[in-house]
Design brief:
It holds the Pfam family Response_reg. Keywords: Phosphoprotein. One of its GO terms (biological process) is phosphorelay signal transduction system. It comes from Pseudoduganella ginsengisoli. Helix content is 53%, strand content 17%. The chain has 11 helices and 11 strands. It is elongated and about 90 Å long. The protein folds into 2 domains: 104 residues, Rossmann fold, CATH 3.40.50; 188 residues, no CATH class. With 327 residues, it is of the alpha/beta class. The strands form 3 sheets. Strands 2-1-3-6-7 form a 5-stranded parallel β-sheet, sandwiched between helices. Strands 8-9-11-10 form a 4-stranded antiparallel β-sheet. It has a two-stranded antiparallel ribbon with strand order 4-5.
């Protein structure tokens, strides 16, 4: 296992003496990378962004200004602490950089070495705190993602019990198995823009709209196929999914794009679930009412295949919990 890299400072200045002076003054605090132009600074950022904690750039350089480099870093590597170093005569550019959010602070030239070291020490501390905060935020995101997906798995059961008036395991197993095989990417809410209460509200409205759409499709299937055998639903699935679905023989169906079967579990909270996907859920509920299910398996050549089978199994809390752990 490789040891973690020591956070580095990148200093960009077209004056060779300034580069040497800076490196000599700061290399006891952290490794110092240097570049003599904005273009070279961008190259080093792209190559070493994972280890660069602080970017310091001179303002006036041939070909481009330092605030261009700082804006580049802000847009692509926002975790890096950005500092502009400039002479008093260029203060106007410094104010502009601050107002545009390109830098956290500036250091006036000529430098006072003691003050320069203090500024960079604080910048390295800030970068470390940002890294710790980002790590905690990622952990929180992973927990919330699991909570969201678990709530949606539970909602699948609620739809079976509430809409279809049954607690059969059949439609739940078919739906979740198809979604797992098709591939589920957990939703990633932007926790900087949405809090837990907003997310809960969005999920509730999303679930209600989906339940209503499923109910309407289930009524449609009941009216169209009253008294029909379960096999009739296969042609209706083919009709609903179009080119992404084809019937296989008398009791099979192949979904070419398995991700279509995971929409409810993986789409963002603010997205409306498609009518096509609501029909998929309604079809499984209709089959469950008739004691049938689709046994799902990976399709030949990709996608997901379903095969009609009989069954009448009640869902238990242990079974539902086992499904939650799979997503």
């Amino acid at each position: 296992m490789s040891e973690p890299q020591i956070p580095a400072i990148l200093y960009v200045d077209d004056e060779a003496t300034a580069l040497k002076y800076f490196q000599r003054a700061l290399d006891t605090l952290a490794p110092v990378l240097t570049a003599d132009s904005v273009d070279e600074g961008k190259t080093l950022l792209d190559a070493h962004a994972d280890r660069i904690a602080v970017l310091v750039s001179d303002q006036r350089m041939p070909g481009a200004y330092g605030n261009e480099l700082l804006a580049y870093a802000r847009d692509r590597y926002p975790h890096i602490v950005r500092i502009l170093t400039t002479a008093y005569s260029e203060l106007e550019h410094t104010v502009e950089a601050v107002n545009q959010g390109q830098i956290q602070r500036y250091i006036q030239k000529p430098w006072d070495i003691a003050a320069l070291r203090m500024e960079l020490r604080q910048a390295l501390d800030l970068a470390r705190l940002r890294g710790e905060h980002a790590h905690l935020l990622r952990e929180k995101l992973m927990v919330r993602q699991k909570q969201v997906i678990a709530g949606r798995v539970g909602m699948v059961y609620t739809l079976c019990a509430g809409i279809a008036g049954q607690v059969s395991y059949l439609p739940v197993e078919s739906y979740l198995a198809a979604a797992r095989i098709g591939g589920v990417t957990p939703p990633e809410p932007d926790w900087l823009l949405i809090d837990h209460a907003d997310l809960t509200s969005a999920e509730a409205f999303r679930n209600a709209a989906f339940a209503l759409a499923v109910r309407e499709h289930l009524d449609e299937i009941d009216q169209r196929y009253a008294g029909a055998q379960p096999e009739r639903i296969l042609s209706m699935l083919e009709e609903n999914f179009g080119a992404d679905c084809r019937v296989l023989g008398a009791n099979g169906v192949h979904f070419l794009d398995g991700r279509l079967l995971a929409e409810f579990l993986e789409s963002p909270s603010g997205d409306v679930i498609s009518s096509q996907h609501a029909f998929w859920m309604a079809a499984l509920l209709w089959l469950g009412r008739h004691g049938s299910m689709l046994q799902m398996a990976p399709g030949e050549g990709g996608g997901v295949q379903g095969k009609l089978s009989k069954g009448d199994t009640m869902l238990t809390p242990v079974q539902l919990a086992a499904w939650v752990e799979q997503f």
